[in-house]
Amino acid sequence: MCRSIRTLHNFVPPATEEEMRAAALQYVRKVAGVTRPSQANAPAFDEAVQAVTAATRRLVRALVTSAPPKTREAELARARERWQRRSARAGG
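RESULT FIELD:
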């Protein structure tokens, strides 16, 4: 999975349309193997981004959980902590 794609489910505040589109764009880039499509492929690329964004929106809205909502700040702090642990192991 592309490391740039972030979890969007169960956050307060909920994921924005922009976050969903960014995740869709990263997914389509990964599948296509390009960051910027050629002019000939741009329409298909853009259509795929729109379709994946719509599917992401439907999925995020349909998911249910009994877990308490997460905050972006807490998840960022956890990610930083994981990165520091990995860095310490790699350096030592």
